[in-house]
Amino acid sequence: MTQFDRRTVIAGALAGSIIGAEDARAQSPRVPLIATEEAYATPEFMAALDAGPPGMTQAEKTYTALLRGGAGAGASELNRKLCNIDARLAEMDANGVDMHLLSVTIPGPQAFPPKEGARVARSLNDGLAAIIRAHPTRFAGLAAIAPQDPEASVAEIERARKDLALNGVIINSHSFGEYLDEPKFRPILAALEAQDMPLYLHPRSPSQAMIGPYENYGLSGALWGYGADGSMHLLRMIFGGVFDEFPRLKVVLGHMGEGIPYYFMRVDNRYRNLMARGGEKLGLKPLKQLPSQYFKSNIYITTSGTFSHQVLAYCLEILGAERILFAIDYPYERSEEAVRFIRSATLSQIDAERICFRNAQTLFRIKNPVLPKS
Question: What residues does the Amidohydrolase-related domain cover (predicted)?
């Protein structure tokens, strides 16, 4: 991590805290942008979601219908952006975004019964690979899997890596209320590690067992519920010993870490305190590192939907630019807002390059973009 004086970092963030403000430091030459949390879908997939598969909670059905303007594969502008590659390319060009790392929109194949979900995943991945072949310098992709069918998921991870040359895997949090720390999913985690496939852990509405208090005031969706769900899922993986068992597993969490970085001190402190008092009685396990330290060994975060220079400065200070990747969260967030944010951030040239494209290029093994020489 580039060393910064804390007051300098925070002062620089405050100086550029309003999106669209004059650049505090020009990034020259123009730093390429690889956006790493960019949703896509097919009309067939959206129609299947409209039918209300059993793995969707009622809150998800209501929330997604509201965002999309109602049912029907062509019902809204959001659907058009999810499904239309030409429209996506036009928006990328208009905003200077060089590449999208595509991943299927929530809830993905996890909405369907196991065998059907596995079939949906294969179909989506075949289609995604075709998009990338047609536009190899503009798109890379994350394979979808159906964790509710672990055996099929392992096979699909291997196929995605070896046959389709995809760049990682997307899992949209819980599958029928089950989380990745549970023993039944260990073969999936082992396959991810063996194939060196980074996992993008994307949030969704809280599971049916958790949803109750979130059902009022719109809290079940991106307003709060997604972050609560995503952060809990990753903490379950940390405290469940997943990263001790699979030390080479790489996980990416969006939205500047779903709030977890702001609780590093609290979580580490409570973990130490409880373990000293017999925390095993609460189900705590001895870990090889403090909880926050897995963010330096196994976990990356992205800027998706969190376009704040103050937040970026904080995450830079405690994680370093090596652990942060640029993302938009297209089409749920505005490309122009995300690009203005990152272009006006107070960053050294090397940190700008790391966040904007180099970290993504390395982590996801992206080889095709024409990028500036080192």
Answer: 86-366
